[in-house]
Amino acid sequence: MRRWYRIATTIAACVLTLSATGCHRAEMSKPLIVIIVPSQDNPFFKSEADAAATRAQSLGYRVRVDAHDDNAYRQDNLIDAAIASNAAAIILDNAGADSSIAAVRRATLAGIPCFLIDREIEANGIAKAQIIADNNQGGRIVAAEFAHAMGSEGGEYAELLGRESDTNAQIRTSAFHTILDKQATLHRVAAQSANWSQSEAFQKTETILQAHANIRGIISGNDTMALGAAAAVKSAGLNGIVITGLDGSPDAIAAVRSGTLRATSLQPAVLIARRAVDEANRFLHSGTTGEPERQIIPCDLVTQQNADDYSEFEKVR
Predict the structure, then answer these.
(1) Distance between alpha carbon 115 and the CA centroid of its chain, in Å?
(2) Residue ranges in the chain whose pLDDT is less than 70
(3) Which domains does the chain have, with CATH numbers?
(4) Angle 180-45-115 (CA atoms, 0-180°, nearest 5)?
(5) What distances in angstroms separate CA 76 from CA 36, 42, 79, 147, 245, one per listed residue?
(6) Of 159, 215, 236, 241, which residue is the least packed, with the fewest Cβ within 10 Å?
(7) What is the 3-state secondary structure (H, E, C) of 41-52?
């Protein structure tokens, strides 16, 4: 009896091993889509990576998700790894408008089409698609809400800027000032880069509040910095300071709902990521995306009145 039990156990183990091997081979036979984002710790970038991965898997691809941490050298290595892996396509939120051109060109020359999301590059005809949120429009609508909240009396305000090397940071601050510089009663008394960081925004805001006791508003280049600013204002025991962000993160929308932030401008990260994968799939099957290379997707203003309509970087109702 024991002998037959051992034989049966051995056969079962072999069947399981062969089954697992077959499943592995079947999975590895699927074409690979490599998804490269700046970070998987930041909720915005994680949402776009997750959305792209889920869509690609639903279309029959296997996926690999990597992060370059806004380091162009690391991005180069990840692109080279995608080429070495014979990826079918690359979905890329790049590490710099200029510094990423060579990497995208290298992948394209290797026969791997690139589909850019969130950030564009300063070159045409290399990537198959550049699908980005309209940061200029998103900045203008949230700046208009900021100015409205400051009221006719206006007053002093501070600005928290994103990472200086990030093209989107420059576009957003330019958009803010397209609106705010026309308001004669608004006076910017401080502008500091907090590098998209919540902790750095907290520290910079503490310093700004100490130097400018009459601050009535803080406009931030992204939600993470806005939340850091809000925490610093609360820590200082202050009330009534208008704070806005930009991105539409879940934490920011919760803060808008509670009144901690006045508004944010939602970048449709999930929509953009899914669209990039859909266009990659279309290109791989037909040789064309059917769309222009540069595609600009509008942002949505999120206030306390419509905050429940948004979740996880997309409109849900």
Answers:
(1) 15
(2) 1-27
(3) 24-133+269-296 (3.40.50.2300), 135-266 (3.40.50.2300)
(4) 100
(5) 11, 21, 5, 42, 31
(6) 236
(7) CCHHHHHHHHHH
